[in-house]
Amino acid sequence: MGKGPGLYTDIGKKARDLLYKDYQSDQKFTITTYSPTGVAITSTGIKKGQLFLADVNTQLKKKNITTDIKVDTNSNLSTTITLDEPAPGLKTIFSFKVPDQRSGKFEAQYLHEHVGISSSIGLTANPVVNFSGVIGSNSLALGTDVSFDTKSGNFTKYNAGFSFSNADLVASLTLNDKGDSLNASYYHIVNPLTNSAVGAEVTHSFSTNVNTITVGTQHAVDPLTTVKARVNNSGKVSALIQHEWRPKSFLTVSGEVDSKAIDKTAKVGLSLALKP
């Protein structure tokens, strides 16, 4: 566990990663290469049905400044500049997209032993302002996340969350969607030597009175191969296997079956990440 409570996005992250990270129903290919000067170039292609999307991302690092430049098939140019530790515990992020003139955003993050703060503002005449804050420690954390639209004068988001952690267990409770949904998640390390863990997430919607339950597990077959599986109360069963066939190069195959469908429709995704 890290020092301090972290940021609001860290609340429930362990369970989310276990249940949703790396699952892919589309065909995805990613390859990353590094130049002798340390410049990283990542090319990604995704096929969704008959639609093919691609982008190329270039990352440059110089001292504590990281610049990411991405170009996609729709001729959008996205740039993110991150300044790490201009002061102890502080990180600043500036991002914008061309030709979208309203996409500019400035974000500042501050991490302390008992506080984690993140605030962002859109670089427009009437920006959306977001603030999230967490207080506590690496064992107990309580936080909130709000967004305010200065143009309409309304709060567009207000969430709150609580997290408890120890060496092998992480539990969280969050109130989302302006108080309309309650989410509880649980992550437990069964065997750290084999990276075996189980997790669960329960979401209740007050407006529809619908509950969504998802449970999952992961296990390292060997130091280079990990398998994961999950199932929810809608009858959808998913599984994946990920193999690191060379350092920082991963091959991931995942699939999903709707056990309640009459024809047992299945979706299979393939993700290949190459990072020489």
Task: Give an account of the 3D structure.
There is one protein chain. A hairpin with a 2-residue loop joins β2 and β3. Helices cover 3% and strands 65% of the residues. The protein has a 19-stranded mixed β-barrel. The radius of gyration is 21 Å and the shape is globular. The protein has 276 residues and is mainly β. It has 1 helix and 19 strands.
- Could you give the count of β-strands? 19
Shape: globular
**Count the helices. How many?**
1
Q: What composes the largest sheet?
A: 19 strands, mixed, barrel
Low-confidence stretches: none
SSE succession: HEEEEEEEEEEEEEEEEEEE
What is the overall pLDDT average? 90
Coarse structural class: mainly beta
Distance between the termini: 29 Å
**Rg of Cα set:** 21 Å
Keywords:
mainly beta; globular; 3% helix; Mitochondrial outer membrane protein porin of 34 kDa; 276 residues; 1 helix; 19-stranded mixed β-barrel; membrane
Brief rundown of the structure:
The chain has one helix and 19 strands. It has 276 residues and is an all-beta fold. The protein is globular, with a radius of gyration of 21 Å.
